[in-house]
Design goal:
Blueprint lengths: L3 H4 L10 E6 L21 E4 L5 E5 L3 E4 L38 H11 L3 E5 L16 H21 L4 E3 L1 E2 L5 H14 L3 E3 L18 H10 L2 E5 L4 H8 L8 H24 L3 H4 L5 E4 L6 H14 L10 H8 E5 L4 H5 L1 H4 L4 E3 L13 H9 L4 H15 L5
Parallel strand pairs: 1-5, 5-6, 7-8, 8-9, 9-10, 10-11, 11-12
Antiparallel strand pairs: 2-3, 3-4
């Protein structure tokens, strides 16, 4: 296995690899250490129960998430564990996983070992799009939890020396509060948000409705990036847990669910690309995270075929491929066919490289080697774009 130093030679020498999707195992005191004493029993805290399993509790003895796993498949011995026994948001317990899953200093060491310069970081405990917070009846408490998380992420970004860039949680159940939180997070130095892709799954307006205009205006003003991580809604998580036909065992649920949760983002993109939202807010950049890229050319071609076939005289319709290239991005990690053969159909400027570290499907321990290998047919200029420059430009990283 080649080392990062051996890989980044010749035309790729000095390339600062950016990992566009990783996850943080939230420390058990992330919330309690940052709120007033009167709120410490209200915000999430990790407790080991009588059965030896960790659980997130909030508001006294209410369960926030169970189990409170580490969301990591990298064991303390550095070996990647099979993902088939997992809750995708949790996984092994804290004392079983590599410290790099949750400790900033150790995470930076792992990044150096893998040849990664910077990481875009997503949550675990609150859900990938904060959708778990909508189950909290007390909206003020849910807002406190989201804001405290975002403050903690700004602390981690600073502690990492501007190498880890967490995306902020959004209190999307309150659009006015969401707009204010975008502005606050921009002042903290955060670069983007992880957005619930289908708020209608929790009884709120879908993203194409004008209710969201105050949020889009705040995002336009702050240049924050909007990220749709897979599973960032109740509908998205159903795609994982209910993707397997009746009778399918847990082994098949993990395999089928992993594919279905990723393809679910095709629904999100199809609705966005055929709407007027991208034209109304042309400066906003949108990212489909942890969903792969192989399906994108088909969806673009399918949308275009049907739109042309059903076009009405005098009606101007958006071109999905051009809309995608002007406003959207997606990430790949394990794929070979997509990044090696169809990048030109998607757009060389619209694809990012990710590892999904330390989640069940992550590229580990040699992600950079894989990325360089599958991008080789396009040459070093495209490799630099996908593995470095596109993310640096999109997230305004200090490279």
């Amino acid at each position: 296995m080649a080392t990062p130093e051996q890989l980044l030679t010749g035309p790729l020498a000095g390339m600062k690899v950016v990992d566009a999707d990783t996850h943080l195992t939230e420390p058990g005191d992330l919330w309690t250490s940052r709120v007033a004493k009167k709120d410490q029993d209200r915000v999430p805290r990790k407790v080991r129960d009588e059965n030896g399993r960790d659980t997130w509790y909030y508001n006294g003895d209410d369960v926030f998430a169970r189990p409170a796993g580490a969301g990591s498949v990298i064991r303390k011995d550095g070996v990647k564990q099979s993902f088939l026994d997992w809750n995708i948001e949790n996984g092994l317990q804290w004392d079983e996983v590599d410290v790099g899953s949750y400790d900033t200093k150790t995470r930076l060491e792992r990044m150096d070992e893998m040849g990664i310069w910077a990481q875009i970081v997503y949550p675990n405990a609150a859900g990938f799009g904060a959708h778990r917070l909508t189950k909290i009846p007390d909206r003020d408490l849910a807002l406190l939890i989201a804001k405290t998380y975002n403050t903690a992420m700004a602390d981690i970004q600073e502690e990492s020396g501007e190498r880890m860039f967490p995306m902020a949680l959004l209190p999307f159940w309150d659009i006015e509060a969401s707009a204010k939180e975008v502005e606050r997070c921009a002042e903290l130095g955060l670069r983007g948000i992880t957005m619930c892709s289908e708020p209608q799954s929790a009884g709120f307006p879908n993203l194409l409705q004008s209710d969201w205009n105050p949020l889009w205006e705040a995002i336009t003003d702050t240049e924050m990036v909007v990220n749709f991580h897979v599973g960032a809604s109740e509908f998205g998580m159903e795609a994982y847990y209910k993707g397997t036909w009746e009778g399918g065992d847990k082994w098949r649920q993990g395999i089928v669910g992993a594919a279905m949760i990723e393809l679910h983002n095709a629904k999100v993109l199809a609705n966005m690309l055929t709407s007027d939202l991208l034209d109304r807010y042309p400066k906003i950049k949108w990212v489909s995270v942890e969903s792969g890229i192989g399906w994108i050319p088909y969806v673009l071609e399918r949308l275009e075929y049907q739109m042309l076939d059903s076009a009405m005289p005098g009606k101007s319709l958006p071109n999905p491929t051009q809309q995608f290239r002007d406003h959207m991005y997606s990430c790949f990690w394990f794929e070979e066919i997509g990044p090696s053969r169809i990048l030109d159909r998607i757009g060389f400027d619209n694809v990012l490289f990710e590892t999904d570290y330390p989640h069940p499907t992550c590229l580990y321990p040699s992600p950079v080697e894989h990325g360089i290998k599958v991008l080789e047919p396009w040459g070093p200029e495209v490799t630099r774009k996908v593995m470095s420059e596109n993310s640096i430009k999109l997230y305004r990283l200090p490279a």
